[in-house]
Write a structure and sequence with these properties.
Elements (H helix, E strand, L loop, with lengths): L3 H15 L2 E4 L3 E3 L10 E3 L5 E4 L10 E5 L5 E3 L5 H10 L12 E4 L3 E4 L13 H7 L6 H20 L5 H4 L4 H7 L5
Antiparallel strand pairs: 1-4, 2-3, 5-6, 7-8
Helix pairs in contact: 1-4, 4-6
Length: 184
């Protein structure tokens, strides 16, 4: 939760995943106050619930946004053995030259290492302010968040055989799916 880049990416993830299912209990939080892009408003997957007929979503929020007094942050969740194996496999060479956060694996077919956009445009905005921008597709925040969400949506569509068609065959999603590398 301390990471401002993760804070930014959560917005795109929530938008993308909401196209395939529903979140309940999605708590508000912010990135750490002592990091770059301090106090970036976001949502937390810790304590949230997600349901979908199309995909499973498993999140791991490893640390809070509170300092542990030793230069790090207070632990929150520990990845399971299987989750750690996925991260150790795909957040390393040959898939990346340098590990990144946030680390997102979509069906172990598509990876997102790092955020889709910089948190700079979220500076000084509350969760409500950020959510309100989504209806104005010309706003910088909406372009960032919705653009990131569209690429994540396309990757999900690629692994679900374009299900649901109401999401996967409309707007820019089909062209993004076509631009993605083909799963091996």
């Amino acid at each position: 939760e301390y990471c401002p880049y993760c804070a930014a990416q959560r917005w795109a993830m929530v938008v993308a995943l909401s196209r395939f299912g529903k979140f309940t209990k999605l708590p508000e939080t912010s990135s750490a106050s002592a990091d770059v892009y301090p106090n970036t408003s976001t949502l937390s997957f810790y304590g949230s619930a997600y349901s979908s007929s199309y995909i499973d979503f498993v999140s791991v929020e490893e640390t809070t946004n509170q300092s542990n007094g030793n230069g790090g942050y207070t632990p929150l969740q520990t990845p399971t053995t299987d989750e750690a194996k996925i991260t150790n496999t795909y957040n390393a060479p040959p898939y990346t030259t340098q590990p990144g956060i946030p680390f997102i694996s979509i069906g172990n077919q598509y990876l997102e290492l790092g955020p889709a956009y910089t948190p700079a445009n979220l500076a000084g905005l509350s969760q409500e302010d950020i959510a309100a921008t989504f209806s104005n597709s010309s706003s910088a925040v909406a372009k960032d968040v919705l653009g990131g969400a569209n690429y994540m949506t396309a990757a999900i569509c690629a692994i679900t055989n374009n299900q649901p068609t109401s999401i996967c065959t409309t707007g820019v999603i089909p062209s993004i799916v076509q631009s993605l590398p083909k799963a091996q």
